[in-house]
Amino acid sequence: MAAANAAATRIILRPLATPLPLGFLGLFMATMLLAGLQLGWVPQSQQHVLAVGILAFTVPVQFIACIYGFLVRDLVAGTGMGLLAGSWGTVGVDMLVSHPGARSAGVAWLLVLAGCSLLVPAVAAAQTKLLAGAVNLMAAVRFWVTAVYEWGAPHTWEVAAGAVGVALAALAVYAALAFELEDQRRETVLPTIRRGSGARAMTGDLAQQVSRANNEAGVRKQL
Fold first, then answer.
1. Of 148, 119, 124, 116, whose CA–CA distance to 136 is shortest?
2. pTM
3. Count of other CB atoms within 10 angstroms of residue 201
């Protein structure tokens, strides 16, 4: 009976689009909004307006990217976008409730921990999608440099954080475009630096893609 039930089991696969471009563009928006303050491009008096931008734009789109990252069985996308959504959400709330230009050791500590958390998807992505890993790693660096300033370092650290933020924005836009074109064309157009199973995901046949589907979370009995 058990053998017959196993033989009758079917796994239905539903093609979904990659959520990475959406999440990376959300990251672009957040890091540039904060960089605008840090580099003096936007007056400090506009801090609350920019906070609303982070909370209303970045957090929702990265949360969506997080959910679909897990649905498409991509832990790097799901974990990375979830961590970014939570981190930027906290930063946005702090910017919204604090006085313009105020600094906080509590926020600094949060950013340090957020950066450390992002190392998990960054290291995991190094085995499959180096470009996605690089975005997560640079986001961690961006949080750490900002944390130094929030802890009371000189103004030069604020400028440095803004500069890293702009570099992160450029990398995020490139990654969004590269993965968007790749998913649209079903082939690599701009380098995404895939390796291992990440490369096989684009070049392997269907049998290779689903060879271990029965052992994945949501199919196997336990996580």
1. 119
2. 0.85
3. 14
